[in-house]
Amino acid sequence: MAAGPFNYGLTTMPSGYEQDHTVPLWDVPDASIASHDMPLFQIGTVQYALDAPLASLAAASNRLALCLCPREDSEPLHIVLLDLDDPTRTRRAMVPISPPLRAPSRQAARSIKIYMDPTATHLLLCVDTHTYYWTPSWAQPRLVQRLESVPVTSVSWGPPQSTPPVPLSVLPGPRRWIWTPPILLGTARGDLIETIITAQIGDERPDLLDRWARRAGGSHEPALERYVHHLFSLSDTQPVTGLDWEYNAEQQALITVATSSRLFEFAGSCRESTLDGEPILKSLFTVYQTSPLPYVKTDLPAGPGGLVTATPPSRLPQAPQRVISWLSGAGIYTAQARNLHALEHADLISFPREDQPLALGSTPLHHVLVYDARVECLRSLDAQLVYEAPLPLESGERVLGTAVDPISGSCWIYTARTVFELVVTNETRDVWQSLLAQRDFDGALAFCPNDSAKHAVLAKKADALLAAGLAMEAATCYASAKVPSMEQVMLALMDARANDALRHYVRLCLDALPRDQGVQRLMLATWLLELYMGALSEKEESMDNAAVESLRADIQQVLHRHATALHPHTTYQLFLRQGRMDIWLMYAESRHDTRRIVQHWVDAQEWTRALEALSAQSQPELYFDFSEVLMKHAPAETVQCWQRCDMLDVGRLVPALLQYKPQKDDDHATDYALLYLAYAIDVQGSRDGSAYALRLTRLAASERHWPALLAFVEKAPSECLDLAFALRVCAAVQCHEACVRLYARMEQYENAVQLALSEGDVDLACACADLATNDRDLRRDLWLQCAKHVVQAHPSMQEVMQFLLRTDLLTVEDILPFFPDFYVVDDLKEQICDTLEGYVTRIDSLKEDMDKTAATAASIQHDIQQLGDRFIEVPASQLCMACKKPLLQRHLYVFPCRHGFHADCLTEQVTQHLPPRRLRRLLHLQNQLGALTANENAAPAAEPTRGKPSSALLSMSLERLRESVLPQVIVDAITTGLQEGVNSTRRAFSLNAESMDTTTPRCKAQTQALPPDTWTKMEALRAEMNTIIAGACPTCLLCVQQLATPFENTGESDNWLI
């Protein structure tokens, strides 16, 4: 039997409903974009060409199971499984023909019903007294043998089982076992039966000949049903028209059984599994068999008896687990399965018309009544008719029944030719209005589609609460509703004298106002404070302390939360007019207005509270502003407050410390100004000069502080304490010891010693004398003054001798002149003898030193004489250290370090590094030597500086001086008439033997032509010039000097930064 074309679109209905065929049947329009005028329900037709009359239909997991009845008695039944999510996965199976079906009983009405579990995996086809099982992977269904001759009229599926009902054998290859959940069956005789079916899938052989061959070979297929157990028989023998099995994880079960006129319920515990082959509902029904428990729920006039269930939205208030609806002759009987102990909240909904419907369907929120040619939908919340439409039936076509998908909640209506779907569009759209009419405000809020609906519900709820006297709750709802206007709500609350609710409402409105609405927030916040002030006064008059504290806490929260919305001056004046200084202070604290708080406590002469407020903030300026008045009235607490703050500038507190005067009548009274100055200087390390000066003045003002004054003037840094000022202050109060110490710190040791001696303090004078460490003579003179004072004070000779032991600068002979002329020195005889013996010892030591010095001088003279015989060998290949040319080419110098230079190269190199003073001396010697040899032929050697006096050289710059030095001229001046020999450990050589030999006629003539004193003077000048030029090896000298030269010059440190 070939199937026609299959289309999952919707076709045009006679009622005017029309939808594009490309929209899937299961695709419900989104509620958010659906028009409000669009009907909640629409009837769509499944465009599937049925090739045989439709006998029964079941729906689950968005799949449809259709049973097609054969047109002829000889043709078998067909099962078609439509997958609405994937049309390509449509399955079709042929039902094997049973012998009773082949009998010519076509005229008798046949009972054909198909049932599908919620997962759409297992199907049962009940044909009269025959029951077939089919799974979509099979080619054809199989007969359930043990249910043969059992007229099954209703089926309900139990909880899924994770383990098989009985131990199963291991299957070869890809085959595997599947099993159904426990199945509860209702029969036409009122019996309740439980069964479980197992099946093998994975390797199907649909060929009947192959199956017969396997049977002939002795291979038998296992039975489908693992057990079939009779549970219970109803009190009447009417057919079971509906079954429902509700269960939970605690193995609690509620079984609802419907017939045409009665509704039964069975509740109790069931077993967890059927592994031992026993039914899981046996224990539940055993209780009803052994005890007379009532299980008849209701008895109504007979009707179709259809039983449907629905799962309401969880947003419903007190939403039940399931809602059960039973179509009786009197109407729709509804009940809720909430705790699985019994059906609750039963109700009977009358039919909207007099005629009786043929079938009953359901959606989560509506009952669907199907008549001969129309459909009506009743809202389950209020039983209102919300939809009515005719069914597009052809002539002679009649409705066979309905099917409800337990997973998706969709409802299907079918005839022998057509399948209709009741398409639901935003089913919860009008639920809020229904709940609002029932005054179920919380439930209505859960289903409000937009803010305007929510505000309307809240406004109605607020009106009801206000009418019931719950003004506080009403104020909360009014604030959330935004309607009616704020003024109307306030007037209503004022008329109801609900002052607490009025404050609550105003506060909620203030919290909800955006911050950019400054004027509105200012008015509401100010008025709210006035309301709180009035309420606070009333509660205080009634002595309700708990209410007063609660109001104060609310006011504090308002002040902290809405401090920016209030106008400070207006708010302060509001609190002052009502005399609420406590709230005034609370507002100042919320604004952190410490200045105003401190000023308030100062005006009230509450010095401790003022200091507490001052300590609670961190602005140093406030300490300075209130320092004078606080120091005057609470010095001890003020000083403690100052000590806790490390950010204070002591110099700015000096005026307050100056105004503080300690008690004059109490000599032991604490000077708190002096106490704070000591803390600031000694602990905090202040270096403010005014603080040091004030502390000095305070210490000097009282004699009991003079010990501290002496320690202070000794340790105070000179850059912080003006020593001259301190001396004047100490002198004014005649604190001479402090003056002595100050003189000593000022390095005026003579004045210090004189003042100390004038006061008779010899020890202090001696200590001051020892301070002059840099001038030994001065220190000795100061000790002599001290000794003179000691001698003239007529002490005993023993005391004088003890005084001499205090220093090593004085001896007995130094103090003898201070004694009178006729003073008996018998007591000093021993000391004088010791002194003379010391002189003798010292003279002997000096003689030994002189002998050692004479021997050293003789040794040095001998070494000098030996220097004339010293020589250095110069190889012919040695080069000049300056010009790198052979050294023996011209006049040369060789140093003990064996470095050699040409005379002119050495002169040029040395003059580049000579200091200005030595350079001027060299030029001066050059001028003098040129002047002495002016009458000789070598006189032009001094031409460069001829005629320039020494004073002119002083005004020349260093560059000009170096330019004036001509190395060759200086070399000629040095080597002219130079004798061979050693001078200051240096020797000058010349390649001209005549210039090195003083016995040559030329040298003799020059020597004889000059006066002896002139020649001697010239030799001295040449020797000094030679010393300047060749005093040390320039290479070695520069190396030693550069070792101590830093890598960077002064001011160039930034250039080295990376």
From TrEMBL:
Family matches, as Pfam families: Pep3_Vps18 (PF05131), VPS18_RING_C (PF26148)
Places the protein is found: Endomembrane system
Keywords: Membrane, Metal-binding, Zinc, Zinc-finger
Entry membrane topology: Peripheral membrane protein
Ranges where the Pep3/Vps18 RING C-terminal domain occurs: 878-929
Gene Ontology CC: endosome; HOPS complex
InterPro entries per UniProt: Pep3/Vps18_beta-prop, Pep3/Vps18_RING_C
Organism domain of life: Eukaryota
Any one GO MF annotation of this record: protein-macromolecule adaptor activity
PANTHER family in the record: VACUOLAR PROTEIN SORTING-ASSOCIATED PROTEIN, VACUOLAR PROTEIN SORTING-ASSOCIATED PROTEIN 18 HOMOLOG
Protein name: Similar to S.cerevisiae protein PEP3 (Component of CORVET membrane tethering complex)
Organism per entry: Malassezia sympodialis (strain ATCC 42132)
Taxonomic placement: Eukaryota, Fungi, Dikarya, Basidiomycota, Ustilaginomycotina
